[in-house]
Design a protein that fits this description.
Blueprint (H helix, E strand, L loop, with lengths): L1 H22 L20 H4 L5 H30 L5 H31 L2 H23 L13 H8 L3 H32 L5 H4 L11
Helix pairs in contact: 3-4, 3-7, 4-5, 5-7, 6-7
Length: about 220
């Protein structure tokens, strides 16, 4: 009985704290994604205005796309390392992954989420700054010029061509890496453009709706 009373007391205390935070305007964001091991908060359908949800969903896809790109990049570089290349390229690929994924979430995805949720000009500015660097990095990765450790720490087109002459299997993996980096670039440019249009006032609520393109203009 004493343990049950203690649990009830703690629940009431937590509830009072949550209510106090809500009255103070502090938004509580419970972690809910991924469902099997929640580490971040994603609730676009409830947090984001309806006319902005499509862009927010695509920006989330862009975040997941970057995770896929960097993970596949590790696999490609692992193959290159196994076939005799400098092992330091593998460590670089791992660094890209362990810094790039959380960095993208905190530096541009969360600012965009807050910007669309609260209509914050500061958050929009923060998003534009770091999303520009995100796009620039993805373009660089897709090209992977032979500068840093001959560029083999990134699965881009130059390294894919080079690897094809040494190991066809690894070369194909690099070409696949190039393809997904290109897709990530195109997706990211679309997001950047749409967010910019809305921020500048060109993307009105009607224009930002998913079905806007299918509606005929007024006669």
């Amino acid at each position: 009985m004493a343990k049950e009373a203690e649990l009830n007391r703690r629940e009431q205390e937590i509830k009072r704290r949550e209510e106090a935070l809500a009255r103070a305007g502090v938004i509580i964001e419970p972690k809910n994604w991924p469902p099997f091991f929640p580490i971040i908060h994603v609730d676009i359908s409830n947090d984001i205005p309806v006319h902005l949800q499509r862009v927010q969903y695509v920006s989330f896809a862009s975040l997941l796309g970057l995770v896929i790109c960097l993970f596949w990049n590790i696999l490609c570089v692992t193959g290159a390392w196994i076939t005799g290349h400098d092992p330091r390229i593998w460590f670089l690929a791992v660094i890209y992954f362990i810094t790039g994924c959380p960095g993208a979430y905190f530096l541009w995805y969360r600012p965009l989420y807050r910007a669309m949720r609260k209509d914050s000009a500061f958050s929009y500015g923060w998003f534009f700054l770091f999303y520009f660097f995100h796009i620039a990095f993805c373009i660089y990765a897709a090209i992977s010029p032979p500068f840093f450790y001959m560029g083999r720490s990134l699965a881009g087109i130059f390294q894919a061509i080079s690897e094809m002459g040494e190991n066809a299997a690894v070369g194909i993996m690099y070409f696949m890496g190039f393809a997904i980096f290109v897709l990530e670039v195109l997706l990211s440019i679309w997001v950047f453009q749409r967010v910019y249009w809305f921020f500048r006032g060109k993307g009105t609520e009607a224009q930002m709706r998913p079905d806007a393109a299918t509606r005929a203009p007024p006669s």
